Write a sequence for this structure.
């Protein structure tokens, strides 16, 4: 069970890759701007990093990257000019940025983790507020879990929760102002985070509306797959029991997908996704492709994130 204390730093473990992170994503239908931001602390490695990636209308992108040497996990979730502000536990957060970003004409040219970096340096400011549409769904890591889930937690995260959100605010890129009034998701994770441990994972953020949102993910290890997910509908958060995924690729990048999921009430969800611009990230030998994706389910549409991580 997720409690208000889980919206604060957790006691760190002894694992070298122990991490505590916060993550937010959003899409603004009126302006076409979308983005995601993550702040992560890895105290046993002595590092902290923060990112803000923005998908621009027309297919371009901007990346703001911050990094510091530090061995603590502070109450203030801030690295450089990027900060995630806790305004009300499990209910409201702010995402703010005041820094310099690298702008590229095509999202696939972001080229994070490689040198030289090509693009145009731009001033970036952001002031966004995320208000939860639903209670947190996830695990605190304080309860006994299945052997498969425990093995996944030992490599990916001991504790993790998500919430669909309403997002409002503004983003300034150079001389251009983007008004944000849309939907998104917030995520908090803590525990060992070894990016290279799984063969891969597939993670989906699908906010159809304040009344309906879906989140499913799959972590793939040699010989097993660990799935989890939820749906927010009819004023209830319902656990997903399983889902199947089919993906079409081009040059190792996901371009379209279908999800067939079932919740604990036996209701099925047939979702089709068309992937637009993709921001490629490189973490050591790990590839993470972040795809801005249009999802359709019946007469409902959503714009969210389809994240594909691969170590093969």
């Amino acid at each position: 069970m997720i409690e208000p204390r889980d919206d604060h730093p957790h006691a760190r473990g002894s694992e070298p890759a122990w991490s505590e992170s916060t993550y937010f994503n959003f899409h603004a239908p009126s302006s076409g701007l979308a983005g995601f931001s993550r702040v992560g602390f890895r105290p046993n490695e002595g590092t902290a990093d923060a990112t803000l990636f923005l998908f621009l209308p027309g297919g371009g992108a901007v990346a703001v990257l911050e990094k510091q040497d530090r061995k603590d996990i502070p109450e203030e979730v801030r690295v450089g000019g990027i900060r995630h502000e806790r305004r009300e536990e499990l209910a409201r957060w702010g995402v703010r940025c005041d820094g310099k970003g690298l702008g590229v004409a095509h999202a696939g040219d972001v080229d994070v983790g490689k040198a030289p970096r090509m693009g145009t340096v731009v001033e970036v400011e952001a002031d966004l507020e995320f208000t939860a549409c639903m209670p947190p769904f996830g695990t605190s890591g304080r309860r006994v879990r299945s052997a498969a889930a425990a093995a996944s937690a030992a490599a990916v995260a001991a504790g993790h929760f998500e919430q669909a959100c309403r997002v409002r605010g503004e983003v300034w890129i150079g001389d251009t102002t983007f008004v944000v009034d849309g939907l998104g998701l917030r995520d908090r994770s803590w525990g060992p985070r070894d990016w290279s441990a799984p063969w891969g994972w597939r993670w989906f953020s699908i906010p159809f509306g304040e009344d309906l949102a879906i989140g499913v993910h799959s972590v793939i290890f040699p010989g097993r797959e660990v799935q989890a997910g939820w749906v927010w509908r009819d004023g209830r958060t319902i656990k997903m029991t399983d889902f199947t995924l089919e993906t079409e690729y081009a040059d190792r990048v996901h371009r379209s997908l279908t999800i067939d999921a079932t919740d604990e009430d036996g209701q099925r969800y047939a979702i089709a996704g068309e992937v637009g611009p993709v921001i490629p990230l490189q973490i050591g030998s790990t590839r993470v492709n972040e795809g801005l994706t249009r999802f359709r389910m019946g007469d409902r549409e959503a714009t969210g994130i389809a994240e594909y991580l691969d170590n093969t």
Summary: The longest strand covers residues 176-192.
